[in-house]
Amino acid sequence: MRTSSVSRQTKETSISVELNLDGNGTSKISTGIGFFDHMLASFAKHGLFDLTIKATGDLHVDDHHLVEDMGIVLGEAFAKALGDKSKIERFGHALIPMDEALSTVAVDISGRGYAVFMAEFHYESIGSYSTRMTRHFVDSFARASGMNLNVRIEGEDDHHMVESMFKALGVAIWMATRKNEKRGIPSTKGTL
Questions:
Q1: pLDDT at 185 (0 to 100)
Q2: How many other CB atoms are found less than 10 A from the CB of residue 5?
Q3: CA separation for the pair 49, 46 (Å, rounded)
Q4: CATH of the domain at 55
Q5: How many CB atoms within 10 Å of residue 24?
């Protein structure tokens, strides 16, 4: 069973994540940032994995520590659930529109965490969520999960841009983590 539980406690945040890669998109998420909760729920729904998140942080300062640490903990949960990464597709991609916005996400579960992120947001925040934190989340998630992520977002409405990106990330990861019994370890090296 491809599941994991990961917790992280610092002076700035307290985060626990439970992940089931073979779920159906059910989520229960509480971070204290309403828009971020909505994005993580979309991520799980379109990635078809079950996700439970309980997180608190120093939101009286801003959302930076919580969003960045969430990327780390969620990335660690994916890495743990994937184990040796055998019998997965490894690569995934998605092109997801939302009204005028379009997000393109490509994923390689290579064991080498790296992120390319291209987007220009128009406002500093959506509710209490800082748009600049989208880049930080993607980068932290990529490094902690050992995934190579390439993200490009176009659009005029920041809400649509960020939401289409989280949906695209979910779909691309679902594609890359799908089981394929013929694959073994999906690498000519014999390891990832």
A1: 81
A2: 12
A3: 8
A4: 3.30.230.40
A5: 10
> Would residue 184 count as lying in a domain?
no
**pLDDT per residue as tens digits for the range 23-43:** 999 999 999 999 999 999 999
Is 185 contained in some domain?
Answer: no
The domain in which residue 23 lies consists of 3-177
Q: pLDDT at position 187, please?
A: 77
In sequence order, what are the beta bridge partners of 159?
none
> Which tokens sit at 15?
């985060």
CA distance 157 to 38: 16
Helices and strands: H and E segment counts in the chain: 4, 10
Q: Which stretches of the chain score pLDDT less than 70?
A: none
Q: Would you say residue 186 lies in a domain?
A: no
Question: Is the residue at 187 inside a domain?
Answer: no
Q: Is the Cβ–Cβ distance between 2 and 83 less than 8 Å? A: yes
Q: Is the pTM of this model over 0.90?
A: yes
- Given this model, what pLDDT does residue 183 score? 82
Per-residue model confidence as pLDDT tens digits over 127-144: 999 999 999 999 999 999
Contact predicate 118/83, CB 8 Å: no
Question: How many structural domains compose the chain?
Answer: 1
Q: Who contacts 87 (Cβ-Cβ below 8 Å, separation ≥6)? A: 179, 180, 181, 183, 184
Planar angle of CA 83, 46, 172, nearest 5 degrees:
55
Determine contact, residues 140/148, Cβ cutoff 8 Å. no
